[in-house]
Design a protein that fits this description.
6-stranded mixed β-sheet, 303 residues, elongated
């Protein structure tokens, strides 16, 4: 379980994972927080829209409809792999679901699939999924024959990995709506066990940009986030030097001499400038590295 990401952190996490993002006007303050809790969050839920067309699907998910007001998810993943952000906070996407599934997701203690759900919206034992899951609607008719283009599946993988990476979750924190509620069948047309395998493989490597044609040389290896506590011990490490050089390259260096291997106040001030460059503000730009901003910095791997 985790505190939901702020709008800035969500955006940074997605972009660090190579996701193509479109910010729908008003998404940062669009939510249903007045109707119930938002968080702690436990995972990511994937849906299909039962619609076609980008503009109409995004509008539907932003506005909702008479019996179910929007937002209906946090992001809409279109056929071309673009992710349209439509909400930041509680969204009407998951509804009621099975508490045994929630426990399995929180503990990540299951095999290929979480336990079969036996609850749904309105049933006596159902728990509120809108407070506990990020939701992403994928543009698809949901009839089992509407294709899932490679770019769209790649975006689902990247979005899921981005949120798992930001919160320190594994791939078992990603489920489909059909795995949450016994009333649901989405997403239909691909299997969630296979998608979790893709997410698991992606989480085993640092985030990398989308491949372009013609094929480029193998992407450089980046140093994984060592954790905030690493920096608070004032370490002396070549990782700090590599980080400082990247901050200098991004125009965020605040060093008089250096950078060097020993974490210093100059490092913290330089990193705060990097956080502000990413759009973080206030306590989110205090100069102590977090996973999303670190992944976006792409510090070269150092032994």
């Amino acid at each position: 379980m985790a505190t939901p990401l702020s709008a800035d952190r969500l955006l940074a996490a997605l972009r660090a994972e190579g996701v193509t993002v479109v910010e729908h006007p008003g998404w940062r303050t669009h939510h249903r927080n007045h109707t119930g809790a938002w968080g702690p969050v436990s995972g990511v839920m994937i849906h299909h829209t039962v619609s076609s067309g980008t503009a109409s699907s995004v509008a539907l998910c932003f506005d909702g409809y008479d019996s179910l007001p929007g937002p209906l998810c946090h992001g809409v993943i279109t056929k071309d792999g673009t992710v349209h952000l439509v909400a930041n906070g509680r969204a009407n996407h998951a509804g009621g679901g099975d508490p045994s599934v929630l426990r399995a997701v929180v503990t990540e203690a299951y095999g290929d699939r979480p336990p079969a759900p036996r609850e749904h919206q309105g049933s006596p034992g159902a728990v509120d999924g809108n407070s506990r899951f990020y939701g992403f609607e994928c543009v698809n008719l949901g009839n089992g024959t509407d294709p899932w283009p490679a770019a769209q599946l790649d975006a689902i993988e990247r979005v899921s990995a981005a949120l798992c990476r930001a919160h320190g979750w594994g791939a078992r924190s990603v489920i489909g709506h059909l795995e949450w509620s016994d009333w649901k069948s989405d997403p239909k047309g691909f299997g969630m066990p296979g998608m979790r395998d893709r997410v698991r493989k992606r989480l085993g490597a640092a985030p990398a940009a989308r491949p372009t044609a013609p094929a480029q040389p193998a992407a450089p290896r980046y140093h994984p986030f060592p954790g905030t506590s690493f920096f608070r011990t004032a370490p002396s490490s070549p990782v700090i030097t590599a980080m400082g050089r990247r901050l200098m390259a991004e125009g965020c260096g605040r060093y008089r001499v250096g950078p060097g291997p020993r974490w210093s106040e100059a490092d913290r001030q330089s990193y705060a400038a990097w956080q502000r460059k990413l759009g973080f503000r206030g306590a989110d730009a205090d100069g102590w590295p977090g996973a999303a901003s670190w992944n976006a910095l792409k510090v070269p791997y150092t032994k």
